[in-house]
Amino acid sequence: MNSETKLRKAEIEDRDVIWEIIQQSIERRKQDGSTQWQNGYPNIGTVESDIAKGFAYVLTVDKEIAVYAALILNDEPAYSTIEGAWLSDGEFVVVHRVAVDGKFAGQGMVKKLFDHIEDFTRSHGIQSIKVDTNYDNIAMLKILESKGYSYCGEVLLADGMRKAYEKIII
């Protein structure tokens, strides 16, 4: 199967599809026994805000939305205080709210997403990518390790401590 994957900015018309994908991911996290995303965040307002601010991106497979992520440039207040140390202090892309449509789960789509994010980062001359995840999000921890992200320490987000990672791109 030679599917075409593309990373593009999400539009307001994508809101309901994105929200459905996030709801599926919330339920999968719950079934996995995770505490992540079990307190009303993210919600439809989060999606609308991401779209309005230009943070919302989707990975499409043959024009169908497979993965959602928020990409934020140089702005994550929680990252200014880390128990540990970031690899760099230059410009960075923050990756938040990664969610995969259930019908694409287990097909390596998040790895493809990170490939596209790395291309995006490189093409914009941005130094690195920073990301955090919950301690019990085993799938994301494995993906970050496989993609060469370095564990930098812990950051405190609104709903608790997260493992923080960074990858130098340029």
UniProtKB/TrEMBL annotation:
Ranges for domain N-acetyltransferase: 5-166
SUPFAM superfamilies: Acyl-CoA N-acyltransferases (Nat) (SSF55729)
Organism domain of life: Bacteria
Pfam hit, one: Acetyltransf_1
Protein name: GNAT family N-acetyltransferase
Organism: Chryseobacterium endalhagicum
